[in-house]
Each structure stands twice: as C-alpha cells, then as structure tokens.
Amino acid sequence: MCPVPCNQASSAFCITALWRLVVCSFPALERLAGGIKGSLPGLASQIWRCISAGDGRVLDGASSALADTRARRQQNLGELRSTIEEWARSMHRLGAAERAQVVVRRDRLCVALKAGRQSDLPKGSVTLATSSTGATFYMDPAPTVPLNNAEAVLAAQEREEVARILAHLSAAVADNAARIWQVLDAVTALDICSARGRHAVWCGGVRLRFLLPEVAAQNGSVQVLQPPPRAVDFTVPAGVRVVTVTGPNTGGKTASLKALGLAALMPKAGLFLPLEPTPGKGPPTPFDAPAVAWFDMVLADVGDGQSLQQSLSTFSGHIRRVRAILAALTRRSLVLLDEAGSGTDPAEGAALASALLAALADRAALTLATTHHASLKDLAANDSRFCNAGVEFDLASLRPTYRLIWGSVGASNALAVAEGLGFDPLVVAEARKVCLHFLACIVLSACPAHCSHLCLGRASSYTVYVLSAGVPHILLEGQPCEHQSRITQLDIRALVYFPG
C-alpha cells in the first residue's frame, strides 16, 4: 500500500515517499535501495504528463496537436450524431425503417432502411451494406456523408499523433533502460523486504540460526491455511538419517512433512518462522534463537503421482518421482516421502521402501517418510540411523493434534477414522470382526505346532488381548501355553494375561 496519498498513485511519487519515510531510517535498507536515488524524475514526470495512470490512455495534454485534433473530432462527432439521429427518426416516421436506430457499418454512422425504400433518402446518399437476407439496407444520408468523411480523417490523425507520442516516450525509456533496470531491481529488493517483514508480523515469526548436521526447530508452526496454526516439534537426534512417521490417516503425517519442508526453505528465503517461545524463557533472542538444518535441496514425493496423460498409475508415478530424487540428491539434501512403498502389493512395497530408506540413509542428510508398513517401523530397532515418530491422534474427537511423539509408533486406527468420517456402521462392525479374526490367525500361526489347541472359545485360563488405539480387545481365550512367549508382536501388540 502506498505510504502517502497519491492522486495518480504514480510509482515515482510512491518511491520518493518510501525513500523519505522508511529507507533513510535504516542504513541496511538504504544500501540495498541505492539504485533508487535520483531515479529519473524527468522521465517519470514526462510519462505521467502523457499517460493516464488509471487506464493507460494517452492524455490530451501530451501534445498541442493531439489536443487540437481531439477537440475538432469531438465537435464534428457531436454534429454527426445529432444529424444522423434526426434522419433515423424521420425514416421511422415515414415507415421506411423498422425503428429509429443509428448503426455503424464500415466505421461510419448510418441508418437502417427497408429494402426498396432507399429513394426516401436524398440524392447522394451512400449504401454501405445490406443484411444477409437482403431485407435491410444500411445507408449514409447525403447530409452526413461529409461529416462521416471528416470523422474518418480526424480519427486517422489522432491515431498518428498518439503513435508519434508513444514512439517518443518509448525511445526515451530505451535511452535510459540500464538505469531503469537498476531502479526496478532496487524497488523489487525493497518490496521483498517489506513482504518478509509483513509476513513475520502476521505469523509472529522469529529469526533462526542454521546448523549443518542436526534439525532442532522447537514448537515450529507453518501457517499454510487459516489461523490459528498448530505447533509441531522437530528435534531429530544427532546421527539419525531417516525418520519414519506413522499414525492414522487424517492424522497429520503429510502435514508434518510439509511443515518441515517449508521450515527448511523459508529461512533460506529470508523468512522468519512462526515458533512458539520456550516455556519460561519468552521470545528468543538472536543469541539463543531456534536452529534449523541447512539443506541444499528439499526433494519431495508428496501426493498421488498418477497421470492419465502420461499413462502413470499411482505406483509408477511414485517410482518416477523417487527415481528423479535419487538422481538429484546430495549428502546435504532433505528428502520427504509420503506413503513410502504404497500403491502396490504390501509385501513388495514394504521391501522396496525398506531398501529405498536404507539407500537414503547413506546418500541424504535427512529423510522423513510416512508409512503404514509395520516392517519399516522396525528399522529403528536394528539401525541407529533410523528413528520413529508417531503423530498423536485424539480418539475422542477423531481429530489430529499435529504433535509428533518422537521414538513412538503411531497406530493406523483405520476403522476408528472410517467410523468418525460417517462410514456405514454395519460395514465398520463387520470389518472389526474380520480384523480380529485375521489377528487371531496371526497369533495362532506364531505359536508352536503343539499349541494348535488354542482356539477362540471363551472357557479359558488365559486371555490374549490386542491393544487397538490403546484400548484392549479380547483376541484369544484358551488353555495355558508354556510357549506363550512365542506369540510375537508381528503386526499387532499382543499381551497375555493369566487370571488369578
């Protein structure tokens, strides 16, 4: 917004006001905007004297010849209109015309007459055109012929004078092109600084420090849509190269990936990040400002990559983008993968994703990958370069909290989410039965062969529970089994309780 009221809102006036009110108060801005000083005031005033700021029309005062031509044309046009309108009314009264209407044909004002009534006009009238049916003739009455001729001449003279003025101004701009580019660069730099500052005020942003190996952005939030924002903590332990983010659909996994990507890119563009102050410390100072890692590139495979035009399925779209990521990344790159290994057979997809994450652990600075594959969640147990993070999900409201719980594994909660989104309750109930039966088969298959007497009967001495979203559900009941420790976690969390 212009800092001072301007009738024409001309850039010359706005630049001068900006220089006086703002730039000169800050030495750094004054150095940055050095190209504005003495920014061709003569050329600017000449342009604004000739060109209307509102619609870009060449003004009458651009030259005396243009002003004279337009004045004579206006006078002639007024006389022409009044005369042709009187002829149109006269022809309508005589029944020679359907209505008292003035039309334009071949850039001349004329009247529309019925076929065969041309003789109602005086001698010397000119037929300009006929309708497609031949029922209407468009006539220039003899008294208006010289007025129409004068309009054509004056219009041509006006066009020629406007072209001459624009050519003169264009030549003046071309003569000062180098200087104009300097002014444009300086104004652009100031505009960018202003936008950064206004964004920082809007989002409550703070300046960050850059670190090379670690990521530590406490309580970072990125306002992508409408406020208020939700804070997300990113504190990746030293030495960790791959973080697998797990949790339910609609739980905020992809939002966390996007938040980190923006948090890595925004400081490189000179933007402040909206970070909440550390409790008890107040707003951070430049000496204890939060830190983010410096990445040379942020490479992302987020969203569905299918394309009908390119004959790409969801899986092939992901593969194509990941292939490009592998070709471009360096040891200083951040890689973001959404739903790694999805869109194909779960077993093969999990295997491919596992191998991909292992390769990225060697070749990228940091990789964040969202997944529902259980095998990817187990990578952290065998390799210190891997770390798990689960998104917190409020089961009561079925809404994400956008909190990352580092070191934890988030449950998918697919049935709870489907139920919360209004899915058919009968279908959800049947799905729960199928799911429990499927999990029972997993547990049974994990037991030794001589424990095959385990069943789903309710007469029991022990009970196997499955923890689903923190809530225990009875999975199996049967006789005691000395090999109950062989019931492995696999894709579930199973606890064996012996009553009494």
List the helices and strands and how they pair.
Elements: H1 11-21, H2 27-32, H3 41-50, H4 64-94, E1 102-105, E2 108-114, E3 126-130, E4 136-140, H5 145-175, H6 177-203, E5 209-211, E6 215-220, E7 232-236, E8 242-246, H7 253-265, E9 291-293, E10 297-301, H8 314-328, E11 333-337, H9 346-363, E12 366-370, H10 374-377, H11 379-382, E13 386-394, E14 399-406, H12 414-420, H13 425-446, E15 462-468, E16 471-478, E17 494-497
Parallel strand pairs: 5-9, 8-12, 8-13, 10-11, 11-12
Antiparallel strand pairs: 1-2, 2-4, 3-4, 6-7, 13-14, 15-16, 15-17
Helix pairs in contact: 3-5, 4-5
Provide the low-confidence segments as ranges: 1-9, 213-227, 444-500
Say what oligomer this is: single chain
Beta-strand fraction estimate: 15-25%
Distance between the first and last residues' Cα: 76 Å
Radius of gyration: 39 Å
Distinct helical segment count:
13
What's the architecture of the largest domain in CATH terms?
A: 3-Layer(aba) Sandwich
How would you describe this structure to a colleague?
The protein is an alpha/beta fold and 500 residues long. It folds into four domains: 1-40 and 187-197, no CATH class; 83-149, no CATH class; 204-415, 3-Layer(aba) Sandwich (Rossmann fold); 424-497. Helix content is 40%, strand content 19%. The protein contains 13 helices and 17 strands. Strands 10-11-12-8-13-14 form a six-stranded mixed sheet, sandwiched between helices. Strand 1 and strand 2 (108-114) form a beta hairpin. The radius of gyration is 39 Å and the shape is elongated. Mean pLDDT is 75; it is low at 1-9, 213-227 and 444-500. One of its GO terms (biological process) is mismatch repair. InterPro entries: DNA_mismatch_repair_MutS_C, DNA_mismatch_repair_MutS_sf, MutS, P-loop_NTPase. Residues 1-24 form the signal peptide. Keywords: ATP-binding, DNA-binding, Hydrolase, Nucleotide-binding, Signal. GO terms for molecular function: ATP binding; ATP-dependent DNA damage sensor activity; endonuclease activity; hydrolase activity; mismatched DNA binding.
